[in-house]
Amino acid sequence: MSEVITMKRIGSEEDTTLAMLANDFIRKMSIHKICRVQKAGGKAILICFEEYYYRVESAVSLTVMLTQEENSQDAFIIGFGGGHGLLNISWGANESIAKKAYNALTELGFEKDDSVTGMYL
What we know:
By secondary structure, the chain is of the alpha+beta class. About 20% of the residues lie in helices and about 40% in strands. The protein has two helices and six strands, in the order βαββββαβ. The radius of gyration is 14 Å and the shape is elongated. It starts with a strand and ends in a 9-residue tail after the last strand.
């Protein structure tokens, strides 16, 4: 099962730009970065990673989207692709890679945001 976590950091863009946050986040992750795409005039950054997990004998994917609002930044973390076998069991690999992103963003001042609804279809 995929793991989805939403987070929020309160602070103005002058405090820390989204690009600076993204760069700090990538450094903290220290896993293989696939891509970093900045869109919407720097108001949205999509970052994709992958890491090999022996417990599922394959790479697990992580996608993080950072967005800038007027006085806050939001992070959407999705750990996926670690399912193995006919039942697509991830043995906790999807949760583990999402937790790495969660911990790195917590160090950068983000907090878990449970107010987002409609994320799990």
